[in-house]
Design goal:
Helix content: 40-55%
CATH architecture: 3-Layer(aba) Sandwich
Number of domains: 1
Strand order of the largest sheet: 1-2-3-4
Number of strands: 4
Largest sheet: 4 strands, mixed
CATH superfamily: P-loop containing nucleotide triphosphate hydrolases
Distance between the termini: 33 Å
Strand content: 5-15%
Number of helices: 8
CATH topology: Rossmann fold
Order of helices and strands: EEHEHHEHHHHH
Structural class: alpha+beta
CATH class: Alpha Beta
Radius of gyration: 17 Å
Length: 191
């Protein structure tokens, strides 16, 4: 899987980014991305209302390791503003730099769930990367092991309401990004 090893992972409310740099550092991303030929940024779209509870739960657990807990509702409001703002800046960046658009591939979450290997192949093809058979075999093996593991694990439960949020509030906060994805033909405005 040549080229893919240089991607870093960043998570955004409702969206998971595999990107060259943290999306909160858009100016650095622009300079760095512009200097790397045929580099890529993958955006895997997940409906914000589906991901928001999970993200807040993760932030809450990580912060509990090193700081005083805050009210879950305060955390929800803080993270909704932070992550939706980060995605708004990502939209600004992409609209301001259409010359870099071929360096992005947006992947609909539902497509990823329905055909993960097809999406992996499309990503590699888009960026001109070679998809080695050993990588395909490794990913197929991982998917099998992950499915077995997930059947045995106790599921962590959380909800938007745990963090003082509603589906409507989350969708409103991410409206601009959702509209951008729809205008680009990437996804419909499903909830």
């Amino acid at each position: 899987m040549s080229g893919a090893g240089s991607l870093g992972v960043g998570v955004a409310f409702g969206f998971v980014f595999l990107a060259r740099r943290d999306m909160s550092a858009i100016p650095r991303l622009m300079v760095w991305t512009a200097s790397v030929p045929r580099s890529g940024n993958e955006v895997r779209t997940v409906p914000p209302a589906r991901f928001m509870g999970s993200w807040n739960s993760l932030v809450e657990r990580v912060r509990a390791l090193s700081s005083e807990p805050r009210s879950p509702h305060d955390l929800g409001a803080e993270q909704l503003a932070f992550m939706s703002g980060m995605l708004d800046r990502a939209v600004d960046f992409r609209l301001a730099h259409p010359e870099l658009e071929e360096r992005w591939i947006d992947v609909n979450y539902y497509d990823l769930v329905e055909d993960p290997m097809g999406v992996i192949r499309a990503i590699h093809e888009h960026f001109g990367w070679t998809l080695e058979q050993a990588a395909v075999d490794s990913m197929t093996d991982w998917r099998f092991r992950q499915a077995v593991h997930r059947q045995r694990e106790t599921r962590h439960r959380y909800s938007l309401e745990d963090y003082g949020l509603t589906v409507d509030a989350v969708n409103a906060a991410f409206a601009r990004y959702r509209e951008f994805l729809t205008s680009q033909g990437i996804r419909s405005l499903r909830k």
